[in-house]
Amino acid sequence: MWLNLKFLSWLVLIVGAIHCQAYVHHTFVIKETPYTRLCSTKNILTVNGQFPGPALHVHKGDTIFVDVHNQGNFNITIHWHGVKLPRYPWSDGPEYITQCPIQPGGRFTQKIIFSTEEGTLWWHAHSKWWRATVHGAIIIHPKKGTKYPFPLPHEEVPIIFGEWWKQQIFAVYNRAIFTGADPNVSDAYTINGQPGVLYPCSKPDTFKLKVDHGKTYLLRLINAAVMDILFFAIAKHNVTVVGTDGSYTKPLESSYLTISPGQTIDVLLKANQKSDHYYMAARAYSAAPGVAYDNTTTTGILEYNGNYTPSSPPSLPNNLPYFNNTNASVSFTSSLRSLADKNHPVNVPINITKHLFFVISVNTFPCPNNSCAGPNGTRLATSVNNISFVDPYIDILQAYYGHVNGVFGTNFPDFPPYLFNFTAQGLPLYLQTPRHGTKVEILKYNTTVELVFQGTTLVGGNDHPMHLHGHSFYVVGMGLGNFDKDKDPLRYNLVDPPFMNTIAVPLYGWTAIRFRANNPGVWFLHCHFDRHMTWGMDMAFVVKNGKGRKAHILPPPPDMPPC
């Protein structure tokens, strides 16, 4: 009898363990699907035929599996933007950094490990510019048994900003690569896949958010645009920011938002105005001189429920900053603060063991007989510390893990090769030409890093939304002009800086971040303007294994796509 009870107890434990490992599986089928926008129809690459793609709902600390089937005609990878994937870079997704692409007809099961993230993140393609239509929301609810650090909203609504081209996106990409010029700007911005009433053939399908007077709504904003930072506002309504990039913030009431490509922002909207119809609107922030941008405005409609005669037309927001208002962009972003309460503490690295200073620039390469379509017959490029990144022939993670020589160099410079007045006008032309390279920065496990991004005026300059994979970071400082290593650190916020994974380096300015390199693996750092990433504004960190099994990279899955 004792043996039977012992066996039964053992069996219950085994069955319970198996039950606990019954992970949720999702299926992503990559395929071409016809969509009609702006009076014409074209096939676009989608997940499960949806644009935007399906939202993933998880709880903090969950692990899920996503089976990706590529039934399209092009190579593809999928990235889980802002998900740290502790010790498991194999599912991160950037092409030729952590995997080779999933080829047409291929499949790859990606294990997605959530850890400290809570709030809104998103997933998107990380090959060429396919993320223009291959993207969707990730909603990370509080761990079961816990709750939001704000009153429970009446409803939660994802708001995804995007771009739409009448051309096929691969044609836009190929033309930019072939000519060396800036890509054609988009024909429309979108809100949840719809351009809105200000575009032709678009009014009937305009996104509508229906609300009850007096109730509060949690809007989960995602900027999936390929090329542009956006300003966003709702007519006659303020919103309260409560989170960004999967981390909570102190409440920040604002009449407008600035949101960079790759960034997510959670806001509370109180339906506290007169019952009516109101426009929500988004348009580009683009202050770089001479850089073409889509000068149109996408709209949705905030529609109060009830019996009333709505204004015609609805009110447009009158508080959207002008397209080149750098101060408005910087002012909003620099106002964000981490929640920093007992349930959501901050842990800003104080004793820095690695200082990095990365100069990020728009550049040019010369072409034979000035035959390219960039400035003065050159080919446009970008760089980090004067190195314009070149994709390797196999992914860096596979080469690092498998000790394959000759794929990447390990001597990425901590500081730029040239020191000059980065934000001066009329800089010498020789500074515009970088070097090609495939180099990584090696970090020991648990290194505490301070990284200062410095923008330049080279080739006119630009803002740069920089995104780090595998880690979130504290944004401890930001400013216009050249970074002053003696004065600017005195103004750092080391008490409650926002905890982010994507941050804009302002035009002719700098941004300082701090993070702890405690996630072993290969992790991509790049500008989230896709044209800048394609031109070379990217690099990779290799975080080495630490002591003990729990500080080592986990083994790869058996179905990694072949190179």
Descriptive overview:
Belongs to the multicopper oxidase family. The protein is mostly beta strands. It is built from 5 helices and 32 strands. The chain has a 6-stranded mixed sheet with strand order 10-9-12-17-14-15, with no helix packed on it. A 6-stranded mixed sheet has the order 21-20-25-30-27-28. The termini are far apart.
User: What overall form do the CA principal axes indicate?
Assistant: globular
Number of strands: 32
User: Which regions have little confidence, pLDDT < 50, spanning 5+ residues?
Assistant: 1-20
| Binned strand content | 35-45%
List the defining traits of the structure above:
563 residues, mainly beta, six-stranded mixed β-sheet, 5 helices, 32 strands, globular, Cu-oxidase_C
Compact overview of the structure:
The chain is mostly beta strands and 563 residues long. It has helices spanning 2-20, 169-179, 326-334, 396-401, 530-535, and strands at 24-37, 40-47, 56-59, 63-70, 78-81, 107-113, 119-125, 135-141, 155-164, 188-191, 208-211, 216-223, 229-234, 239-244, 247-254, 257-259, 264-270, 277-285, 297-304, 354-365, 379-384, 387-389, 435-437, 440-443, 447-455, 464-468, 473-480, 499-500, 502-505, 509-517, 521-527, 538-543.
Helices and strands in order:
Blueprint: H1 2-20, E1 24-37, E2 40-47, E3 56-59, E4 63-70, E5 78-81, E6 107-113, E7 119-125, E8 135-141, E9 155-164, H2 169-179, E10 188-191, E11 208-211, E12 216-223, E13 229-234, E14 239-244, E15 247-254, E16 257-259, E17 264-270, E18 277-285, E19 297-304, H3 326-334, E20 354-365, E21 379-384, E22 387-389, H4 396-401, E23 435-437, E24 440-443, E25 447-455, E26 464-468, E27 473-480, E28 499-500, E29 502-505, E30 509-517, E31 521-527, H5 530-535, E32 538-543
Parallel strand pairs: 1-4, 3-8, 9-12, 11-19, 20-25, 22-23, 24-32
Antiparallel strand pairs: 1-2, 4-6, 5-7, 7-8, 9-10, 12-17, 13-16, 13-18, 14-15, 14-17, 18-19, 20-21, 25-30, 26-29, 26-31, 27-28, 27-30, 31-32
